[in-house]
Amino acid sequence: MAIRIPWDQYEAAYLLLVCIDVIENHTDRATAIKKVSETLRKRALHNGIEIDSMYRNENGISMQMTIMTSLYLHKKSGLHGASKLFVDTVELYEKNPKAIKDRIENLVEGGAKLNMSNKEKFYKWLIASVRPGDVSNVRRRCDLVDVYIKNHKKFNTSIYELNNPQDVQRIKTFIEKDVFFKAKNSRQIYHILKSMEIFYDFVTDYSKTIAEEPNLCNLNIVNQDYKEKEFVKFSFEDKLAYTKPVSIEYNGNIYSDFSNWTQLYVRVLKILFKENKNILIDLCGKNITGTGRVEIATIDQMDQMIAPKEFADGLYVETNISATDITKKIAGVLSYYKIKVQDFKIYFERKHEQTPSNAVPVKKTKQADSKVFVDADKYRRILLTHYRKGFRLNDKLSVRRFRMQWKSEFDFEVECSDEELCENVMKICIRYGDMAYLPDVMLDEPRRMKLLAYIRKIFSEGKNVIYYESLFKEFSEDFEDGRINNADMLKTYLSHYVADEMYFGKKYIAPDSNVEIDLTEEVRNFLIEADTAVATDEIVSSLSHITRDKVVTVLAGTNSEEFIRNQKGKYFHESIVEFTTDEMIKIVKWINEAIADKEYMGGKELVDLIGRNLPDIHERYSFLTWLGLRDVLRYKLRDEFSFKGKIISAYGKELSMIKVFENFAKSHEYFTLDQLNTLKTELDTPIYFDAVYENSLRINKEEFVSKDKAKFDVTATDFAIEMFCTGDFVSIKDVNLFGGFPNAYFSWNAFLLQHYVANYSKKFKLLHAGFTANKPVGAIVKRNSSLDTFDDVVIRAVAESNVSLNSNSILEFLCASGYLARKSYGKMDELISQANLLRMNKGD
Question: What does the pLDDT look like over 476-498, one tens digit per residue?
């Protein structure tokens, strides 16, 4: 069987350009579809890829062209969601058309030669290097390792990006010892390790070739230190993470009295305020670039800010923004002053430290705004010795105790006011609430560097946000020895160190204040890369920057249809399961035939048909359960049919399970319990007896007839029941002699009696816990009695009996007396309490 190869960036680029040709009438759609199909099929053959009749055929190209065209025109296609690759391709074209055209410059009509991904090179190498029967198994096992390694925070890279055989050996050794991986793959661990040995041979054979590829990485590559001076371009090209501002050049003056972007921002405003203060005063209470939070404020408006800094007497600027955002704000202010950005030069330098390429450089950040004062070391010594759990600010008792400890430690008084003492404490501490903590006591330097490296690494991978709650859980063990006790405290701690580098929202930290949060996209990309069903716990663990409840909301909340539940707690993305055109034609035909025959088709019924007639689907997607297969079809056919629960019906005509059983009973003159059980199995559902009883007549345990066959003498039948029901009620079981009952055209029995009381009697009603398949239970109750619910009957029955008031005895009694079919009752405590009360009142 041919290997299923996903679309790559070169194919997507080629398809997009052909779509644009069609849109601009340079070619017709039919010709374009044929051309793309032939080109991509020739390309695969040229690159040694085994293909079959379905590979990039014209039907498939037509569907993909519809999706790509809709993306380019910003319209809905009516088909399943576009892949991230297609979305990214269109977005890149809109920003940089040349980049897309460059991708296909080597395209040759005859050979269709495009760059192969490293993964494809491995697949091609496999075909030539192992037995044909082993190709798919080796590939599948290597892909399994790849997914695990890519999502493991220790590596976080694809095995297909390695060019060093020693790195492959390291990964093989790791999975061989990793308890979680071995437990999850215990049955095939031996074969997985053998497959990794084959992959090791591939990397060894191709190491020199791969080393020349620009997109590959090596776990041991080391970057060289370098510094370079650049200037801010005030455009989207500016990337200012891990940079340091050096100087400002404006109006022939050079300013360099700052060491970080926050200080530069304040310095710029001071320069401009001196030039024309009225412009900045007019911006008070406003957002510099239009909409959003207040960014220039008076002292009365400071409470609307997160990190205000004073730039003029009584005027403050919001500084809780990233370096990139600071330059955007400066550009906005310059526009108010009508100053051209090219006349206002801001120079900066980048610094990269020598670190492994798979690690993120972490700058050694000094404490933000720490001010050195004469006795700083002495303050630190007192705080370190006596206030590791924090110093309470502006508290008279704490200040008095601090003074006493100072005098004891240094043998002289601390010479300042109480207010100045607290201010000095704050110069070397982080404030949280009314408490002040030494930063190194909250978290020591190695753990701080680890925390900041993790954050920067997450952002460097393109993630948009990290939730404080998730970050706190991820580093909970590291925080145990420090003083970071909750997620909000972590937010305060981080803002002390990286306020000038990142944006701090209410619940999350982001690299930029203008970030667009798309958690759905992150979960979608993860599951598409996984290419199988993944447990919720594993998704949460892999996307550790997102809280569990938000992941669950994406998977199972509103608008989550694209995420398919394969079994309890396991999900996959709909796009990883693809059906051929022939398969889809057959599936739609079976559904339509079932709807024409009986108005619906059961989901289990459809899946069973697929299993018998289209075994290739299960062979391609061995992870699919029947539930996953049914629900992925529900998504892909959502515009063709109506799906309600486990029932498939004509589009716009939803059928509930109740309606199915109702229609079944209505449409049969005669049917049996066995037929109902068959329907139950087909639909994977319990029997809805209420719907059946409402639309038929049960004449005995096994048989049902049409409702119009009911011929009851109601007056005579009610009179016969009165002979048994001398009080307010009697159990069905106690009406066991039918000699005095009138002719009903069917022999009287407990099932017929139960149905009669439920639907036909004038003097009696049926109160029960529900109809059952094998045992008629419940109570026959006089309509003029005060008993309204089955609970009322049960309480009376127990109270008037001699049964002990405990759960086991009561359940035994109710089943033996014919009120319940099985030993289960949900309101036992209330029953016991009410029955006991009735017994006591009777005693009075």
Answer: 888 988 889 998 999 999 988 88
Starting at the edge strand that comes first in sequence, how are the strands of the sheet with 435-437 ordered?
391-392, 435-437, 430-432
For the ranges 6-10, 67-71, 705-709, the maximum mean pLDDT occurs at 705-709
The pairing of strands 508-510 and 503-504 is: antiparallel
- Which residues does 659 contact at the CB level (< 8 Å), separation at least 6? 691
β-sheet bridge partners, residue 745: none
- Tell me the average pLDDT of the chain: 82
SS3 75: coil
Yes or no: say if 611 and 590 are a contact pair by the CB < 8 Å rule: no
Question: Can you read off the two tokens belonging to residue 419?
Answer: 């207010």
Per-residue 3-state assignment (H helix, E strand, C coil) for 157-189? CCHHHECCHHHHHHHHHHHHHCHHHHHHCCCCH
Token pair 């008095």 is found at: 400
Contact 630, 645 (CB under 8 A): no
Name every residue whose Cβ is closer than 8 Å to that of residue 325 and which is 6 or more positions away in sequence: 503, 512, 513, 514
pLDDT of residue 210: 40
Indicate the angle between helix axes 548-556 and 519-530, nearest 10 degrees: 80
CA distances from 125 to 128, 130, 198, 211 (A): 5, 9, 10, 17
Question: H or E element: which one contains 254?
Answer: strand 253-255
User: Can you say whether the dihedral through the CA atoms of 468, 474, 477, 478 is positive or negative?
Assistant: negative
pLDDT per residue as tens digits for the range 546-555:
888 889 999 9
- The C-alpha atoms of residue 834 and residue 793 are separated, in whole angstroms, by 12
Contact between 267 and 306 (Cβ < 8 Å): no
Q: Are 717 and 742 in contact (CB under 8 A)?
A: yes
Residue 139, Cβ density class (10 Å: 0-12 exposed, 13-18 middle, ≥19 buried): buried
More confident residue, 631 or 506: 631
Compute the distance between CA of residue 148 and CA of residue 728 in angstroms, rounded to an integer: 68
Which amino acid does the sequence have at 537? D
